[in-house]
Design brief:
By secondary structure, the protein is α+β, with helices and mostly antiparallel strands. The strands form two sheets. The protein has a three-stranded mixed sheet with strand order 3-4-5. The protein has a two-stranded antiparallel sheet with strand order 1-2.
Length: 160
């Protein structure tokens, strides 16, 4: 089973709820020990040769002088929602590195959560496709205009 197929299976699990460790991601376990998403997240990061980071670790890393000019995805109020997609940092150039697939999942979860809160949730709607389309159109396509400290999105044809 591919990582994408494993994520899709997790997303379709009726026990799904918001993860305690990575709030932008859905969870089906009773706790972080043995969590399916954590295993998948670790698998993605090991393939990217990156280390999974908690929100607090990301915040701490971004305080470094070398990262002060880094441009993050999302407004100041919503940036933390996309921290689970961060797989590394380019300290030399002051850039954050996101994983494309994880970023799409973060946006898909946000769209789903927004529809749940507004009462507009459609059971068979493909939120994953919404996440991919949003990232492709609003993030990837616009990265060249974000300046020299723009984020890097790994897993795309446009990556540096």
């Amino acid at each position: 089973m591919t990582i994408k197929e494993e994520f899709d299976a997790l997303e379709n699990d009726p026990r799904k709820r918001q993860c305690q460790k990575y709030p932008a991601i859905s969870c089906v376990s009773d706790g972080c020990e043995g969590c399916t998403f954590n295993d998948l997240y670790d698998k993605v990061h090991s393939e990217m040769e990156g280390k999974p980071m908690t929100v607090d670790e990301v915040k701490e890393f971004l305080k470094k002088d070398s990262m002060q000019k880094a441009v993050l995805i999302g407004s100041e109020e919503e940036r933390e929602k996309y921290y689970p997609a961060i797989v590394g940092f380019d300290e030399e150039n002051g850039r954050v590195v996101y994983d494309y697939f994880l970023l799409c999942k973060c946006f898909a979860n946000e769209f789903r959560k927004s529809d749940e809160e507004s009462g507009d949730l459609v059971a068979d709607h493909d939120y994953d496709t919404d996440g991919v389309e949003w990232v492709d159109y609003n993030v990837i396509r616009s990265l060249p205009y974000w300046g020299e400290h723009a984020p890097i999105v790994k897993g795309t044809e446009e990556e540096d």
